[in-house]
Structures are given as structure tokens and as C-alpha cells.
Design a protein that fits this description.
5 strands; 138 residues; Alpha-Beta Plaits; 4 helices; alpha+beta; single chain; five-stranded mixed β-sheet
């Protein structure tokens, strides 16, 4: 099995309602657990920033489903690489709410303290997600 990491960003669409977030997390936890995929989702009122880790085939299948989900739009891969180990092995899908996405952490990995993953490098986005992971419990 080839282990990969994918980081993508998307924007909330008009079809998204706040209650969708719980549904997204529940489905991701259930399906990812079955398919040995791990990851972390960061969410603000406007953007999703997500990292998925697992076999290349499973991560690609999940990403293809994400592309068809009408609750978000403007989906862009920021980072994709083969990796030797997982960063989020303890979560089928961890979650970082907007309240945990702090300006000082954002500024460390971005050119501004405003959370806009589209303006981050792929490596910066992954490092931001990794830093945010340390602020939540598994």
C-alpha cells in the first residue's frame, strides 16, 4: 500500500447549512474508519481546509466524492504527496472549529492573520493543520 496525504481547500456553497457540518463529520468518521483513512477538517464560516491520509486508492476515491458534494465549491488541491507515516493516525476525521483557528497560528504559516487557505502554500496549509492539531484532543 502506498500511503498518501492530500490537503485541499474549498468554499462553502449556497447549499450549505450549518447543520451540514455535523453530517459531514459523522459520515467522514464512519467511512474513513472503515477504509483506514485518517485526517483533520478545519472549518470557518466560509472555508473548509482538510487533510486526508491513507492508501492512494482510498484517498482518491474520497476526494472524488468530495468533488461531487454540492455543499462546497471552488475545490483546490493544495498539497498531495506520498508519505512514510501519518500525522493524524488517531482520527478517522478530527475537527478544528473556527474558534480554534487563531490569528497567531495562521500568521505563522501565511502572509496575513486572516484564515484564507487559498492564499497559502500547500506546505504552509499542511503545517497550519498540524499546528492546529496540537490544540485539540484526540
Amino acid at each position: 500500500m502506498i500511503l498518501v496525504r492530500l490537503v485541499y481547500v474549498s468554499t462553502v456553497s449556497e447549499k450549505f447549512v450549518p447543520s451540514d457540518l455535523e453530517d459531514i463529520l459523522n459520515i467522514a468518521n464512519r467511512h474513513n474508519n472503515i477504509n483506514d483513512v485518517s485526517g483533520l477538517l478545519c472549518f470557518s464560516n466560509k472555508y473548509f481546509l482538510q487533510c486526508l491520509e491513507g492508501s492512494r486508492s482510498q484517498v482518491n476515491k474520497i476526494y472524488q466524492k468530495i468533488l461531487k458534494d454540492e455543499r462546497h465549491k471552488d475545490i483546490v488541491i493544495l498539497h498531495y504527496e506520498e508519505v512514510a507515516d501519518r500525522e493524524f493516525e488517531n482520527w478517522s476525521m478530527g475537527y478544528v472549529p473556527e474558534s480554534s483557528i487563531t490569528a497567531p497560528i495562521i500568521l505563522k504559516y501565511s502572509s496575513t492573520k486572516t484564515f484564507n487557505p487559498y492564499e497559502m502554500t500547500g506546505q504552509g496549509a499542511f503545517m497550519l493543520i498540524s499546528a492546529l492539531k496540537r490544540n485539540i484532543k484526540s
